[in-house]
Structure to design on (338 residues):
């Protein structure tokens, strides 16, 4: 490893460690500044003072804040994220149980969002100020403007209640629940492994509407950013030069202009995916989707700070990981960054 690469690696590692430290401080402060007494949430409102003091001593709530912080970091270093008040299970076990549902939902949503958003953004840029450009911009404006919980409820009314084209709330219809062993936690994969295609079709039927609504919201953002990036490239001199030299329009667009925005799109899609993972709270609530968003909401309502703090920490780690993935993809798409 050359000195230059070693310096770059050291700088990146330092940045990651500083970010994680800031994230730990943030999650700790959230847990202590929330107007919720963690001891009272455990023992209940009717517990006597002796019980209260015993529990406070056991969880360290009677210690000074700096000691509580070091104890919090030490527990995390040993893989102890605390126990959920609501379920009585280790928080990390709860999250591992609900996270596959959210990953499944967010993954299908980003496929819809990026799969439609990138081509539509390029089309809008190429046909700038023409009718198709205005239509695409109008659709993206609607996607940005409509509250996602409202879109979800309207979607349920139209496509489920009125037209019966998709499944309703939850990941499965009631009569299919429990028929497939929970091998991976990803319902579609478990259904394929079990060879139960009826459950697979029902799971797709329930996934289609919430994933499409999330994907539409994501598509609006990706389309607008793609259009902006593409317009910037189409105004560059190398595009004009390529066209003057006789290069076809499609080749100029896809092999030259699009190649120069791929790196930017990697960041946009990665951040959009991260936002879907941590921001699916409303859509999971509307569709009774038993995922990460609904888990953090339910625990926040009852003041289960162990669960809330762990979820906040996990969201931060997800975004750090996605940024690292983006950096790695940069080196693949743009050799100049290696």
């Amino acid at each position: 490893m050359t000195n230059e690469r070693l310096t770059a690696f050291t700088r990146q590692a330092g940045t990651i460690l500083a970010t994680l430290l800031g994230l730990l401080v943030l999650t700790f402060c959230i847990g202590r500044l929330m107007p919720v007494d963690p001891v009272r949430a455990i023992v209940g409102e009717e517990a006597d003072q002796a019980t209260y003091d015993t529990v406070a001593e056991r969880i360290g709530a009677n210690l000074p804040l700096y000691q509580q912080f070091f104890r919090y970091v030490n527990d995390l270093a040993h893989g102890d994220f605390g126990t959920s008040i609501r379920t009585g299970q280790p928080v990390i076990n709860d999250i591992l149980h609900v996270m596959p549902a959210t990953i499944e939902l967010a993954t299908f949503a980003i496929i819809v969002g990026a799969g439609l958003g990138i081509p539509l953004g390029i089309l809008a840029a190429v046909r700038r100020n023409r009718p198709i450009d205005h239509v695409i911009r109008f659709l993206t404006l609607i996607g940005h403007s409509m509250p996602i919980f409202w879109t979800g409820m309207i979607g349920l009314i139209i496509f489920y209640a009125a037209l019966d084209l998709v499944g309703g709330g939850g990941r499965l219809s009631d009569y299919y629940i429990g028929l497939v062993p929970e091998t991976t936690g990803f319902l579609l994969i478990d259904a394929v492994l079990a060879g139960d295609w009826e459950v697979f079709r029902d799971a797709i039927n329930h996934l289609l509407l919430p994933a499409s609504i999330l994907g539409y919201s994501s598509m609006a953002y990706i389309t607008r950013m793609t259009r902006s990036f593409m317009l910037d490239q189409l105004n560059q001199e190398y595009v004009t030069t390529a066209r003057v030299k006789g290069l076809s329009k499609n080749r100029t667009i896809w092999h030259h202009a699009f190649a120069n925005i791929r790196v930017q799109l990697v960041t946009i899609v990665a951040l959009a995916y991260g936002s879907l993972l941590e921001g699916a709270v409303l859509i999971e609530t509307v569709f009774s989707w038993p995922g990460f968003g609904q888990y953090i909401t339910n625990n926040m309502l009852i003041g289960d700070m162990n669960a809330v703090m762990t979820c906040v920490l996990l969201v931060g780690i997800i975004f750090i990981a996605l940024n690292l993935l983006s950096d790695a993809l940069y080196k693949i798409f743009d050799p100049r960054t290696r």
Notes: The CA atoms of residues 82 and 306 lie 6 Å apart. The chain has a mean pLDDT of 83.
